[in-house]
Amino acid sequence: MTDSRPVVTRFAPSPTGYLHIGGARTALFNWLYARGRGGKFLLRIEDTDRARSTPEATEAILKGLQWLGLDWDGAPVSQFEGRERHAEVAREMLEKGSAYKCFSTQEEIEAFREAARAEGRSTLFLSPWRDADPATYPDAPHVIRLRAPREGQTVVHDAVQGDVTFGNDQLDDMVLLRSDGTPTYMHAVVVDDHDMGVTHIIRGDDHLTNAARQIQIYQAMGWEVPVFGHIPLIHGTDGKKLSKRHGAVGLHEYAAMGYPAAAMRNYLARLGWSHGDDELFDDAQARAWFDLAGIGKAPARLDFKKLEHVSGWHIARMPPAELMHELDAYLAETGAPALNDQQKHWMEPILPVLQAKAKTLPALLEQGHFALITRPVTVEEKAAAALDPVSRGILAELTAALQHASWARDDLEAAAKTIGESHGLGLGKIAAPLRAALAGRSSTPSVFDMMLSLGREETLARLQDQAG
Q1: Which residues are catalytic?
Q2: Which parts of the sequence bind ATP (predicted)?
Q3: What is the pTM for the complete model shown?
Q4: Is 244 labelled a binding residue?
């Protein structure tokens, strides 16, 4: 499947709700294919369904793509705004004879189908106006239909599915222009893709039958047919079509669960596409490797355990500045307050420690809890058990010993070890009251990592608050 033209792909969502994870994957595949070949990735909002299309849904889709890190070329195109162009092409087909006016009413069409059902023959509507003499046309409302070939076959040369053949006797003379002059979705899509110079149409395999009908419009207009690649849908773990019963289906839900955008790009790329045995990769590798031949024909299955593994791998490798950006985006998505300068100042030094273990952003924030709180530290019940009178006395001794200590890890450990030994205690026993004083919890990062992040002044203040 080759095409010498510069690659142009597109993502064409209908703005009737949030960005579904399946749509996000389709957008990603188109983006990767174009970006990996120096091509263009275009965005078209298919808003011809005026009753269901909303500005809020359009905004949600744009926001989702931006969060996922997919940039597009040029301004988003509104399909509705091109309706005059769609009608113009339909009228041109009418003049060329590749389309015709049909005056059949809905009642007549339904009567035809009822008779066909009763007689056991195909209910595909055969318009009596297909070959009518224009001189017999009544002055009445009409639609414009494609004069589709009745014999032979239409073949979709699909880069994913292979050649898929449709008998032309199974494809109807579809409506191009409704009686009110508005274009149908099927017609508008072809005109838009042609006018936008789209060379590769990568979309869900639920559009495969549409491709056969749309090819007939390309052929009727003498336009070059783009390369099609119909990708299998995403299924849940039970092998059934993904729905809300399987958990999150909206991209925004994954953002709110704290999966970084880089991890989602990696995971979604592998959801139905493969490059050997590579499971974990960055954007540059994905752009270089992605091709249509690597897309499987079987539906992909959503696997949260695998997503978590991918997420942990990306979090562990993120530069601190990028990770802080991801944390800001996560907090904004969930409506939580942004980190202030003091919190960032305490959090950044310990990021390498936290990101080595965290699988998600909220897990990282949970481990970094000590950097997000202010004095006086609220001590949880389980941690408070470590703050008996003896332990508080030890904290007082340690506070005094650390007043003039070099704020280096070895010196901090040595000071704690010395005081512990004077009480016949190892570092493990000293750590529990330190955790309680510094974080108010019994499960924290290393107490010395926390001390280094908080700095001398804040560490000593927290210890003094709990000292006996």
Answers
A1: 244
A2: 244
A3: 0.91
A4: yes
